[in-house]
């Protein structure tokens, strides 16, 4: 399916709320950070070129989007926090909504 992605034998669909664990180096240390947000877009056809976009609303109310390549060596884990089945393949319309409106639209 065009609006889903597979990672480590699990399938994630657009609209689901994901927790993405991302590794990065800070000086000598390697740290992990969790980015929790709604999967709004999946792009690419092969696993090497596939990317996905996750959007979250920060504590100050500003929307933050992150584009993550599926073949990235820094991608550690993806977990589903909430499942959803919206009608559209790409959820660009949530960019103009507040957090409460997003929860009402995506069920």
TrEMBL record:
Pfam families: Ribosomal_L19 (PF01245)
One Gene Ontology MF term: structural constituent of ribosome
Signal peptide span: none
Keywords on record: Ribonucleoprotein, Ribosomal protein
Gene Ontology annotations for the cellular component aspect, listed alphabetically: cytosolic large ribosomal subunit
GO terms classed as biological process: translation
PANTHER family per record: LARGE RIBOSOMAL SUBUNIT PROTEIN BL19M, RIBOSOMAL PROTEIN L19
Family membership: Belongs to the bacterial ribosomal protein bL19 family.
UniProt function note: This protein is located at the 30S-50S ribosomal subunit interface and may play a role in the structure and function of the aminoacyl-tRNA binding site.
Full protein name: 50S ribosomal protein L19
Annotated organism of origin: Candidatus Roizmanbacteria bacterium RIFCSPLOWO2_01_FULL_37_12
């Amino acid at each position: 399916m065009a609006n889903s992605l597979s990672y480590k034998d699990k399938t994630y669909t657009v609209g689901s709320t994901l927790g993405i664990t991302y590794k990065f180096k800070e000086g000598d240390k390697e740290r992990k950070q969790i980015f929790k947000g709604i999967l709004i877009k999946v792009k690419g056809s092969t696993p090497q070129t596939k990317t996905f976009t996750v959007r979250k609303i920060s504590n100050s109310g500003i929307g933050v989007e992150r584009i993550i390549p599926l073949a990235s060596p820094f991608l550690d884990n993806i977990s589903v926090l909430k499942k959803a089945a919206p009608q559209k393949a790409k959820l660009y319309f949530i960019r103009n909504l507040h957090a409460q409106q997003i929860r009402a639209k995506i069920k």
